Amino acid sequence: MEQITDFFQYIMNSEEIIQTGGLIAIVLIVYIENGLFFGFFLPGDYLLFLSGVFCGLGLLKVNIYLLLMAIFAAAVLGSYTGYLSGYFFGEALENKKENLFFKKKHIKRTKKYFEKYGSRTLIIARFLPVIRTFAPILAGLVKMKLVNFSIYNIVGGGLWVGILVIGGYYLGDRFPWIINYVHWIIIFFLAITTFTVLKGYFSAKQEIENEL
Q: Taking every annotated instance into account, which residue ranges of this chain make up the domain VTT (predicted)?
């Protein structure tokens, strides 16, 4: 049990992941968080930002262009994995019997949401924890066209990776003392993303319920 606890503490610690796992660990976590439903809790935003900071400081021995391309590929491929899983296995979810934890009205609300906001959702969702993981799966579930999904997947992935990694790299390169404030950066990201997710969730829920 203690080993399991230690493992989860490790994967939630972006600073330790970068220092011990390097590029491989970063890419793997980004891939899982962007397309596999059980990866929704992984630290995507501040992992990207801190990887840029560490690269700028020289603590992560990877060329910035390689870092950008590797993370971008992981984000895009991860979302394709989520889309395909939703596309091919979504019917099994729709036919699932209702129970305490599963209600078909949630599927209906999801379809309504993607019918109205689908394309834009895939870009905005990149910057929203949890939603970032499930948006590609739900896009596949509602059978969004692959061409449309691909466009917004690539654009959204590019913006997400570019803004966070390049922003972190710039700060790490120009302001090396930022390493002393890593924990405050993580707290800042957590506060902002938590607020955004909760606000977006309740706003979308209210709008969808008004339409039903």
A: 42-169
